[in-house]
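1st attempt posting a full record on here, be nice pls
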Amino acid sequence: MAVLRVKFTKTKRDKLAQVLWILNWISVVTGAILFSLGLFLKVEINKRGELMAERDIQYMPNMLIAVGLIACAINFLGGKICYDCVDTTKFLRWKLIMLPYIICTFFFTFCVLVGALMCYSMRGELEVSLDLGLTEAMRFYKDTDTPGRCFLKRTVDMLQIEFHCCGNSGYKDWFQIQWISNRYLDMSQKEVVDRLRSNVEGKYLMDGVPFSCCNINSPRPCIQQQITNNSAHFNYEHQTEELNLWIKGCREALLEHYNYIMQSIGLAVLITWLFELSVLTGVRYLQTSLENVLRQGDPNSESDGWLLENSFIETARTNLNIIKSLGKSNQIDTANNGDPNINVPSTSKAHYGPDNVPPKQTPEAEEQHH
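the predicted structure (as tokens):
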């Protein structure tokens, strides 16, 4: 029994072909949109690539770019097929191509669905990449004279100013690293020397943060040195001075930024998948209805269209049997130790011995034979 059988008249078939032609061209535009979204995401990731660890997070934009290009090609071909199918006689040139086209498009729409789901599952990988990358960038914040790292100070400062954040998880992350270069430390001061010696690794650690951590909404001048020392500042209590520094960590801020982008892209990809699936369903109806018209021999007659000619179970069983038969045809009969000639019948019924040489006949035997 056919799945979702629908009866089509000649007028309905023509209208279906015309509508699918338009929808395929709309799908070409959606493919271009997917391609653009992939490029946009790739640029956004590369824009702050120095703040991310070298992990495999480029797969998502690359997949969107590839899916967008494939969507443009597939739907362009689909538009041409549907345009020609308005005329039943032109359908003959596409008859053998339509079923492989539908199968390939089905697997492509599945890839689009996977892409949509990946947009929502990328957070974990991105969070690990940002955590490692921000920690590394903060560690090299002071190396403004080192080639390859001299730009990190400006990058981190601009990040904290733009996203209103401080440190990796919070401003206290700056307390655990030396972010001031040694060339700006006065070694003649006993306090500086003692602080360097008190650390096992010889680092100058302090309860201070860079200027970019200062909250511009603070009602008082920013306090960025001796943050935890209440007695060092007049009328100051660092536990309650929430407006003095940015409280949010930059990892959380960047995650929120990228999550918003990924969720928006994921929604767009999901809508595209639903649209592509509806177009594919219409193409399948058009293909089956036109094939039934050819069987009937009358291009103006009514015909049935369906998604599957048999039920889901019967279709699965048939395809499974086909796969099994293909597998058996490639197997070698090993029942007789793999010798393909073991069952070949002998051309002669006589067995002459181990050397397989016929014995010489005597003249008397030859006369009797004749």
